[in-house]
Design goal:
The protein is an alpha+beta fold. It has 16 helices and 14 strands. The strands form six sheets. It has a three-stranded antiparallel sheet. Strands 13-10-14 form a three-stranded antiparallel sheet, with no helix packed on it. A hairpin with a 2-residue loop joins strand 4 and strand 5. The longest helix is centred in the middle third of the chain and has 19 residues.
Length: 461
């Protein structure tokens, strides 16, 4: 029986794990000349070319709809191409691609539409896993500015639909309902990944407010995801967002060799270095404080680094538990029956994993839900703002080097609930579901001078 896509499924078909081309050589120049035989690319180099060079889901956005997105912005006439590209990035929190991408931001890519229907725009993992800090874009840095709800609503309207999404894709800017997508997409599939005629009820929650973690942390970990529920060695777990309803089951098996290489590329990523001066004497004092107070969970750093891979029980860490509770037992059991879990099973959560802190300066905001805008707020629970907003720029003018994170404006009260969603999502209200900023009070015993020293040390990681 032929399956007809609902508007919601067609919209979700745009959730791709695709990507832009890069040379296979690791140096500045490829070998040339008759005496130099080509060197076989490494798995990581192949993975980079795969990730940044091809689509793993068909595109779902017609070229004309993409070019007419400006009509959803309240403009009277089409902006010039450069202005259109800039305005699109600013409205949706996307970033310039640091690789050839036809002028599109990270996360969007031109590709052929199904059935020879011309060219379209596909979405890939770099919508969330491509971020910007200090004015530079990085593959593998979590996108701390994305408003995927606005993007999805505008795209839907541009193709003539209502703009209503099947669940909330994004509650507050800079976060994404990644768990909700995993649940929704798997519910459209049988365990062998063939499409179902009716979506399963796997108890979807869309108030988890997940801040996308940096890919370069994965190399030190034995697990993945905030609750440590996935095995770091799993290739198939990384392929879940290939579950566009337009992809047939054989697409997954065909792409698996590529994703083995993509995993190797992810494991090769390094964090950007802190770009401002560091007080070496203060940083050394901070190192001693860090190793005495923080290293039992977050590890030690340098040539002989250690990382304990600890999942902290939820009652001990005390941070917002919506993500911990948000993936149901029913979903976990169904996932473990699926093709994705044939190599490594998912495990029930016990709490949240204390992450490595390599490149922590670049990973603001903090906690799994982005509720702490700076490291200082992580180390001083009493200082955390309850309702705040920020510019959602990512240049150094928007960065607070003293507190290590984003400059924010604390608000006396939340915005009017009747305000447009685009405005509401610019405000982080810690009283809302999934956005609590309590817990992790381990830095409260430190004095402010000690916190400053620890922050100075963290700039060196």
């Amino acid at each position: 029986m032929r399956r007809t896509l609902t508007p919601a499924a067609a919209l979700l078909a745009g959730l791709t794990f695709l990507a832009p081309p890069v040379g296979a050589w690791s140096g500045d120049h490829a070998p040339t000349g008759a005496d130099h035989a080509p060197t076989e690319p490494t798995a990581a180099e192949r993975g980079k070319a795969h990730l940044l060079g091809q689509a793993y889901n068909p595109p779902s956005i017609p070229q004309a709809a993409y070019e007419n997105l400006w009509k959803q912005w309240g403009l009277k006439e089409k902006p010039a191409p450069d202005d259109f590209a800039r305005m699109l990035r600013e409205r949706y929190g996307l970033h310039e691609a640091p690789y050839p991408n036809d002028g599109l931001p990270m996360g969007l890519r031109e590709a052929d539409l199904p059935l020879g229907a011309g060219r379209g725009i596909a979405q890939d993992c770099l919508l969330c896993h491509g971020g910007s800090i200090a004015g530079h874009s990085y593959v593998g840095l979590g996108n701390s500015t994305i408003d995927f709800q606005a993007f999805s609503e505008d795209v839907a309207r541009a193709v003539g639909r209502s703009g209503r999404t099947p669940f909330i894709f994004c509650n507050v800017r800079g976060t994404i309902e990644a768990g909700g997508f995993a649940v929704y997409l798997l519910a459209l599939r049988e365990p062998d990944l063939s499409l179902r005629s009716k979506r399963l009820d796997l108890e979807l929650h869309d108030d988890l407010c997940e801040d996308t973690p940096a890919w370069w942390l994965l190399k030190k970990k034995k697990t993945m995801y905030y609750d440590g529920g996935g095995d770091q060695r799993s290739v198939r777990s990384m392929m879940q967002f290939m579950m566009s309803p337009l992809n047939l089951p054989d697409a997954f098996a065909n792409a698996e060799p590529d994703f083995k290489d993509i995993r190797e590329y992810i494991l090769s990523l390094q964090p950007p270095r802190y770009p401002l001066p560091i007080n070496a004497e203060l940083a050394e004092h901070g190192r001693l404080l860090f190793e005495a107070n923080c290293s039992r969970c977050h590890g030690t750093y340098g040539e002989h680094w250690t990382y304990p891979n600890k999942v902290i029980p939820i009652d001990k860490i005390g941070t917002d538990r919506a993500r911990f509770d948000g993936l149901s037992k029913k979903f976990g059991e169904y996932y473990n029956k699926s093709w994705f879990a044939e190599e490594y099973k998912a495990t029930p959560p016990e709490g949240y994993q204390a992450p490595p802190l390599d490149g922590v300066w670049a990973m603001a905001p903090y906690f799994h839900n982005g509720s702490a805008p700076t490291v200082y707020d992580v180390l001083n629970s009493k200082a955390r703002p309850k309702v705040f907003t920020r510019s959602y720029r990512t240049d150094l003018d928007a960065y607070d080097p003293a507190k290590l994170g984003w400059k924010v404006q604390a608000l006396a009260e939340p915005p009017d609930p009747a305000a447009p969603g685009l405005e509401l999502r610019r405000v982080y209200d810690t009283a809302k579901p999934g956005r609590g900023n309590g817990g992790h009070t381990f830095g409260d015993a430190l004095g402010d001078d000690e916190r400053r020293a620890v922050i100075e040390y963290l700039k060196t990681l």
